[in-house]
Specification:
By secondary structure, this protein is an alpha/beta fold. Helices cover 36% and strands 19% of the residues. The chain has one domain: Acetylglutamate kinase-like (Carbamate kinase), CATH 3.40.1160. The site of uridine-5'-diphosphate (UDP) has 24 residues, from helix 2, helix 3 and helix 5.
Length: 239
Amino acid sequence: MRKKSGCVPVQRILLKISGESFGSKEPFEMLHVDHIIHDIVDAYNQGVEMGIVMGGGNIVRGAVLEKKGIPRTTGDEMGMLATVINALILRDLLRLKGIKAAIINARLIEGIGEAYQRDKCLDYLASKTILLFAGGTGHPYFTTDTAAALRAVELEAQCLLKGTKVDGVYENYSPDLARARKLDILTYEKAIRARYQVMDLTAIAFCMENRMPIRVFNLMQPGNLLRAICGEIGTWIGV
Ligand code: UDP
């Protein structure tokens, strides 16, 4: 299916985009959003069906607000709303490229997106519509990683791709990468035991129970989405 390098990507993926992948200190600076859109369009044009779970950490994280005295549940509600903002940005930027995109919102807001229904989502995917999942799981105390794991399994994606700002999972990680060693392959058990902090433990455990492979990769580098789909980069987490 991929013409350029001969790689045949999987048919359906669930992509998790962390809010921080937008790459900005200011919420709406969004330094990397153009190439992220470009990467998504590229994969779409190769026939890859895509569900995308949006994070919201570039705007609000409940746990951070809790440190300032805001109750966790309120902060998490705000975090879920932040994911809706990011989903709206992606939806409209995709539409500007002529691509059909629909927001599926776990926390229904009248007039914004639709409620999750598995059959409807499968119909959307079959009709070449990109699904943008907003609102995480719809519940406080969870993360969008867990929402991504859930949707990947429910929609029978072949892989959960976690786009971040690092190249994959590192042993002895430090920002200068002085003693760090990148892992190409990792078992679910080791990822959970070592607590590498690349992905929420609940999400990894759910993927393990349902044998959903995960690939962690750097989405901030243009062109990386197709490379990740083709298994050329990042860290693969599986059995
Ligand atoms: N959140 C939540 N329940 C969910 C998903 C997200 O309460 O199912 C809240 C939580 O406060 C979280 C914030 O939304 O910190 C943003 O999501 P996340 O941290 O997963 O975003 P990311 O770090 O991937 O940008």
